[in-house]
Every structure is written in structure tokens, then in C-alpha cells.
């Protein structure tokens, strides 16, 4: 069985690699109750050959979320997996994201369809150094799963057909 990486490469599915990725996101959680290997076992049961790493991360987050009834730290872990996945799909610099939102081209009609106003973009660009340094993306890891999913569904703008978000 193989997974398709974000850059298109294929790699064999590895239990230890998935577990290690989840383990890295368990900092500050109660290790007596949160078991990354248990999540990995459940995730692997739901995989198919050719699954993307985005889908794998989504499944891992959803799996961790289902374990919230066992311990509330699973809700934090689920959110961290989902946030990590989102961060890998979005640009790292706030002003760059805002430019993408303004220059968005609708794939259905090929027309410029800005998601923010020119005035908003101008304000961001005039203050980009200050704004870029004020955005601390690591704070995203403090959400629980319900909070993150609410934010994702209700407030994050999506700029392409793959559903890549802009934070």
C-alpha cells in the first residue's frame, strides 16, 4: 500500500512514520490516556493504496476526534493534526495569502473574483511587515477540534478547487 505525498511522490505507508507524526503533536497532553499508536492502527484500517497525505491527515484528525469520549486531550490532538495539515496547504506569510485572496481567478469562468476588497489589500500591504510579524501561526495549535472545525467551516476562505484554504 502506498501514500501520495503533497509533491506527488509515492511512498510506502509506514506505521512508524504515521505514529511519529502524531506523537510530535502530543506535547503537553496526558500520555497516560493519549495513545498515538492506537490512532495509527485505526487510521491504517481506513487507508487504501493511493491515499493522499492530506486525506491521511484528515482521517487521523477524525479518528482522534472520535476518541474524545475517552479523554478530552484527544480533541486537542485532533485539532493539532488538522491545523498541521492546513498549515502544509497554505502559505506561511499573511500578506502573501491576502494577495492570493485579492488576485483569485474563478476557475469556472476565468474571471478575476477577489475575495477581499482592494482597500483591504492596500491596508495589508501598507502594513505588511507589522502584520506579518504579528501573526503567530503556532497559536493555531491551541484550538480544540470543535473550535478548529467551526473556524474552518465558517471563516476560512478557500481559493481553489482542491479546497486549499487561506488562513
Give an overview of the whole structure.
This is Ribonucleoside-diphosphate reductase large subunit. Residues 1-92 form the ATP-cone domain. It comes from Chloebia gouldiae (Gouldian finch). InterPro entries: ATP-cone_dom, RNR_R1-su_N, Rrm1. The chain has 167 residues and is mainly α. It has 2 domains: 1-89; 91-167, no CATH class. The protein has helices spanning 15-24, 36-45, 53-66, 73-89, 94-102, 118-126, 128-134, 145-154; strands spanning 2-4, 10-12, 51-52, 157-158, 165-166. The strands form 2 sheets. A 3-stranded mixed sheet has the order 2-1-3. Strands 4-5 form a two-stranded antiparallel sheet. The longest helix has 17 residues, at 73-89. It is globular, with a radius of gyration of 18 Å. The two termini are 33 Å apart.
Please tally the β strands and state the result: 5
Specify the biggest β-sheet: 3 strands, mixed
Average residue pLDDT: 92
Helix fraction bin: 40-55%
Number of domains: 2
Approximately what portion of the residues adopt beta-strand conformation?
A: 5-15%
Pfam family, one: ATP-cone
GO biological process, one term: deoxyribonucleotide biosynthetic process
Protein name: Ribonucleoside-diphosphate reductase large subunit
GO molecular function, one term: ribonucleoside-diphosphate reductase activity, thioredoxin disulfide as acceptor
In short:
It contains eight helices and five strands; from the N terminus they run ββααβααααααββ. It has helices at 15-24, 36-45, 53-66, 73-89, 94-102, 118-126, 128-134, 145-154, and strands at residues 2-4, 10-12, 51-52, 157-158, 165-166.
